[in-house]
Amino acid sequence: LFRHVFKGGVHPNDCKELTRNAAIKPLKLPEQVVLPLTQHIGPPCKPVVRPGDMVKTGMLIAASEKLISAPIHASVSGKVRAIKKSSHPILGSCDAVIIDSDGRDEKSYLEIDQSAMASRFSPEDIKKRIQTAGIVGMGGAAFPTHVKLSPPAGKPIDTFILNGAECEPYLTCDDRIMQEQAIAILQGMQLLMKAVDAKKGIIAIEDNKQKAIKAMREGLASLQLATCNLQPVTCNLQLRALPTKYPQGGEKQLIKALTNREVPALKLPLDVGCIVDNVQTAFAVYEAVFKNKPLYERVVTVTGNAVDRPSNIIVRIGTPVSFMLEQCGGIKGKLGKIIIGGPMMGMAQYTTDMPVVKGMSGVLALSDHLATHEEAQYCIRCGKCKESCPVNLIPTDIAKASEYGRFDIATMLNAVDCIECGCCSYVCPSHIQLVQLIKHAKRSISCQI
Amino acid sequence: MPDLMRISPSPHIHSGVSVKGVMWAVTFALIPSGVWGVWAFGFRALYLIVASVISCVVTEALILKLRRKPIAINDGSAVLTGLLLAYNVSPDLPIWIICIGAIFAIAVVKQAFGGLGRNIFNPALAGRAFLMASWPVYMVAFKNPRWQIDALTSATPLTNIKHQFGFPSPGYLDLFIGNRGGCIGEVCVAALLLGTAFLVYKKYISLRIALSYIGTVALLSWIFMGDGLFQGDWIFYVLSGGLVLGAFFMATDYVTSPVTKTGKLIFGILCGVLTFAIRKWGGYPEGVCYSILIMNAAVPIIERHTRPRRFGGAA
Predict the structure, then answer these.
(1) A113 phi and psi, to 5 degrees?
(2) What residues pair up with A162 in beta bridges, in sequence order?
(3) What is the per-residue pLDDT across A406-446, written as a single tens digit (0 to 9) for each?
(4) Is the model more confident about A151 or about B3?
(5) Do B259 and A337 touch (CB under 8 A)?
(6) Which of B4, B8, B10, B203 is the best residue to mutate to test the A interface, defined by the most A CB atoms within 10 Å of its own CB?
(7) CB hemisphere CA count around A197 (13 angstroms)
């Protein structure tokens, strides 16, 4: 059997042993949650509550009538204290609804298992429920899921890919949730497939997650034994263990590795008949459709050598990162960096005040000696960046054009193709911030258009 | 909560491979060949190597100081240039000549163009070409290893063939282990291959350039270098002269070779064609140095025409 791989990529030390065997634990409720009005790609939501209002867990607090948007729900029960600008892990700052918890965690919805009635859900029902629950891509991009599930007419989807690659070093939240919630994730996947009428489903997991592969295999077997109400969609699910290589979890790389199709620049997976969703998204879909539960919590990996007790935790959206770190034993030793996300694409933060958002998969605290900074030297044209680039670019040439403000040259060198995975900077022996320079070129090019 | 944290763009981890590491690794890989050279040609060879390295490093430090740049001589690049220059000259060369070559290589070929990474030509080779143009008599006076009877002065095997002196050519084994006259670092093919194996193992060099270069020379020599077509002694032409040193250690120089895969192949093949042409029709018995230098100048145009296929674009 032939095994496709994507070109380029790197093999960093995955450091997943810190939390690989840490079972997911619910985090203590914080006293206050901060719910930014932008937790998705698209325009911000408008609050539908006012300061002083009482809310229950799962209640709608902000929504938008815009197409590309996802509503936001209260993640604790209590009283709305204020709506004001607060720090945001990706945007820097953003308006947010701040809720003081009353500690009772009363739910606003009825949690009943409806999985037995699965066949009653039409694709439209499924999409509607996903939209109402405020589900976004939970692998990091935070694109509203219901929008992804509504491809324009004439673009049929034949393959649904469940993304369990989790190629970023350190992160293990997807690994753990696959080990612990395999059947729920697979049911969520079936719902997603039904929503887009995909005939084929592929579960993609990197081979450094053997336990997750085993759990998902077993889940698959038991699902296929049971008489499922979603026939015939269930019949065509297969699990593929992929050789570990970063950035395997990138949509375009995953599609290339699994189907040998290439998604052209500025196009979407649906242009080649594929949809890719993260395992946590599938889990959230399962909970939203079968249990009525809006997206107000997620699994986050809190890790790094500066964290006292690295853990995988279920945490309410809006919980301050500082609270999360405290609950994991706080910082040990001299802290160097706090990173939201993984070490390859995550963002370094200057504060721990910001809240957990829907797209946040990890918090990484690195100690001082790991947070080193090397002065960039001039490029020696070794070509390692080119070899590592998964989208066939010559990063050093684009970076040079970007440095000199020659965005015309950067455009000609296809800078817009860059997926910002960071492989080039990772391998550069001259320590040039290649991906940063290319991002700069991309922003400047899109401003010109 | 601590109040000071570091901010930097992603990625926050690094492969650990540095310019310095690569340069010293290449230097290390060249040691076996130099050891053979010193053993075969005596301590004079060592003096030349040391003089060349010191001249390069001192020149580099001086110019970096004048340019008010950090004096990054510990990155190993100047040491490497000095080493390669010494490896490319006769063990009988007067010391002062190699010092001038070293100064030219660093000051004119490297630093005048902006220093490490900005030079168009391989500094060591350009330094050698400069010496060849200035003091040709010294540059072509070779000697055999000291244990041979006519150890004083002799012709290299390639000169011997070119000018039909009629000396018997050394056997393949002698050529392979370096039992012949020639430049300090080029004679022992076995030692050079050992160094290359180390660099390939460390993934510091790709063999695309070197193999297409040597392959082209072998093929053309086999076809055209014999009495009739397809009768050339290609093994002799591969093992003689500076081909192995040039192909593995100088044509592969990062700065002065293409980064694209197809570009590397074209670069290697054209180097081979030029080397063959100079050996066959040129005034010099050996053409590795000039071939690589000429191809260095062609790198930008090669790269422009060998850009990788766009991801998701037409095949």
Answers:
(1) -80, 115
(2) A203, A277
(3) 999 999 999 999 999 999 999 999 999 999 999 999 999 88
(4) A151
(5) no
(6) B10
(7) 8
Q: Do B22 and A382 touch (CB under 8 A)?
A: yes
Question: Do the chains contact at B7 and A322, CB–CB below 8 Å?
Answer: no
Instruction: Sheet with A60-63: list strands edge to edge.
Output: A46-47, A60-63, A72-73
Instruction: List the one residue out of A107, A30, A113 whose CA is nearest residue A326.
Output: A30
- B227-B230-B232 Cα angle (round to 5): 55
Q: Which residue has the tokens 């492969």?
A: B15
pLDDT of residue A1: 44
A96, A98, A99, A100 alpha-carbon torsion, rounded to 10° = 160
User: Which of 1-20 (A) contact B at CB < 8 A?
Assistant: 10, 12-13
pLDDT at B285: 84
Answer yes or no: do B260 and A394 touch at CB < 8 A.
Answer: yes
Nearest Cα residue to B260 out of B229, B306, B224, B298: B306
ipTM of this predicted complex?
0.92
Task: Quickly state the pLDDT bin for B187 (edges 50, 70, 90).
Answer: very high
CA-to-CA separations, A284 to A35, A137, A281, in angstroms, rounded: 18, 10, 5
Do A167 and A173 meet the contact criterion of CB atoms below 8 Å apart? no
Chain centroid, CA B11 distance in Å: 35
Q: Which residue of A has its CA nearest to B8?
A: A348
pLDDT in tens, A233-253: 456 889 999 999 999 999 999
Q: How many CA atoms lie within 13 A of A338 on its CB side?
A: 23
> Is the overall model pTM greater than 0.80, yes or no?
yes
